[in-house]
UniProtKB/TrEMBL annotation:
This is FAD-binding oxidoreductase. Transmembrane segments: none annotated. Keywords: FAD, Flavoprotein, Oxidoreductase. Pfam families: FAD-oxidase_C, FAD_binding_4. It comes from the Bacteria. GO terms for molecular function: FAD binding; oxidoreductase activity. GO terms for biological process: respiratory electron transport chain. PANTHER family: D-2-HYDROXYGLUTARATE DEHYDROGENASE, MITOCHONDRIAL. Residues 4-189 form the FAD-binding PCMH-type domain. Signal peptide: none annotated. SUPFAM superfamilies: FAD-binding/transporter-associated domain-like, FAD-linked oxidases, C-terminal domain.
Length: 426
């Protein structure tokens, strides 16, 4: 993104949990701060060390790049234990060899790591079907801020003894412990999947179509919204236009079911409102997915100033109005920039990307977007987390008591404030 820079006095690349524990023990004794980095694909600056003003404590970058082991798949129990640095693609490939899959998928799958997606509770394109990363975590191994190793590692589906520590570390953004390993739930891949890109007149046509597909008995595997501006930008960077007819909005819909999925899907498309054109591709539909997955990179290559990237969500019934308000805001006299909106429409999640924003207007524009989202009862962070990008605005998403509770947990687990300083709490 070209937005975040920082300083590390050293980089350590441990291979084992014991090595991580040894490093953290030393850091705790010497008051050294630790920024953990997995694939470094996060979009809120959470894996970039802080800058280094005079007199600040030394910081190390702890990279999980060498912690890439993937255990043997437990086919009956549908789970796998992995080290934190194993990539999402590696885990999914290993699961695939056993006839299973990892329920989390995202465009950065080749680089994003297990530790990173758990630490950020990543959402991704399969969330509508299998839930977020937190729901895939059966067990966790982590090094606490004092160097002790915490291991809750049970494949039991039912195990109700006290606090949900794996659930707490999921989404903790490196602020509570260093995640070194994860025991992940695996899921069964869809049968008979079909992928369609549908050119649509309006956002509300997309949500109605998703409902109609469900009513027709189809299972929604993914539902992604794109705009003409986004598709055109990807096309300018070498991507294919998915549908011949240009339209204000496009819905990428992946559905599955038992028998005759394509016929059922075509029936839904024929009767749905606002459909201007559509193309259907059986199987994994990689060619159709390409245009969606190339959005982030095409955006980064097209903006004159660092992109203002805001990952927000609104109730599904408010999506159409929220998108209209955001586009109007970007074109208003007060804030001139180029908006590219896309995202996981089935989850009410819009990725607001604002290009060519004058640097002195980045914060003002961010606040204006958050005001629109608040007006529709939405969230300032749908799936990317808080990181450094949004730490000044957590009060817009959580009450004072809620924030104080988070702070109390942080202080209890990391009393010296060594783990990922500047992230989440600012
Ligand atoms: C995606 O859905 C990612 O592709 C990135 O969450 C979103 O670049 C973005 O705004
Ligand atoms: Zn996303």
């Amino acid at each position: 993104m070209g937005r975040y820079t920082g300083h590390a006095d050293a980089v350590v690349r441990p291979r084992t949990t014991d090595e991580v524990a040894a490093v953290v023990t030393l850091c705790a004794a010497e008051g050294v701060r630790i920024c953990v980095q997995g694939g470094n694909t996060g979009l809120v600056g959470g894996s970039v060390p802080p800058s280094h003003p005079d007199g600040s404590r030394p910081t190390i970058l702890l990279s999980t790049a060498r912690m890439t082991d993937v255990d043997e798949i437990d086919i009956v129990g549908q789970s796998v234990g992995v080290q934190a640095g194993a990539s999402v693609a590696t885990i999914d490939t290993a699961a695939g060899r056993a006839g299973l899959m990892f329920g989390v998928d995202l465009a950065s799958r080749e680089s994003a790591t297990a530790g990173g997606v758990v630490a950020t509770n990543a959402g991704g394109v399969r969330m509508i079907r299998h839930g977020n990363t937190r729901s895939q975590v059966l067990g966790i191994e982590a090094v606490l801020a004092d160097g002790r190793i915490l291991r809750r590692w049970s494949p039991l589906v039912k195990d109700n003894v006290g606090y949900d520590i794996p659930g707490l570390l999921a989404g903790s953004e490196g602020t509570l412990a260093v995640i070194t390993g994860v025991l992940l739930r695996l899921v069964r891949p869809a049968t008979g999947a079909e992928v369609a890109v549908i050119a649509l007149r309006a956002v509300d046509d997309a949500t109605a179509l998703i409902g109609a597909a469900r009513d027709a008995g189809l299972t929604i595997e993914a539902a992604e919204l794109m705009t003409d501006a986004g598709v055109t930008l990807v096309h300018e960077h070498g991507g294919r236009r998915p549908v011949a007819t240009a339209a204000p909005f496009y819905l990428l819909l992946e559905v599955s079911g038992t028998g005759g999925v394509q016929d059922v899907l075509l029936g839904v498309l024929e009767t749905a409102d606002g459909v201007l054109d559509a193309v259907v591709e059986p199987g994994p539909g990689r060619a159709l997915w390409e245009v969606r997955e190339r959005h982030t990179e095409s955006i980064s290559r097209s903006t004159a100033t660092p992109v203002v990237k805001l990952d927000v969500s609104v109730p599904i019934h408010a999506l159409g109005d929220a998108v209209a308000d955001l586009e109007a805001l970007a074109g208003s006299r007060d804030h001139r920039c180029r908006p590219i909106l896309f995202g996981h429409v089935g989850d009410g999640n819009i990725h607001v990307n604002l290009l060519d924003v004058p640097p002195d207007d980045a914060d003002g524009l961010t606040e204006a977007v958050f005001a629109v989202i608040a007006g529709h009862g939405g969230s300032i962070s749908a799936e990317h987390g808080i990181g450094r990008a949004k730490s000044a605005w957590t009060h817009l998403g959580r009450s004072a008591v809620d924030l104080a509770t988070m702070r109390a947990i942080k202080d209890a687990l990391d009393p010296q404030g060594l783990l990922n300083p500047g992230v989440l709490f600012g």
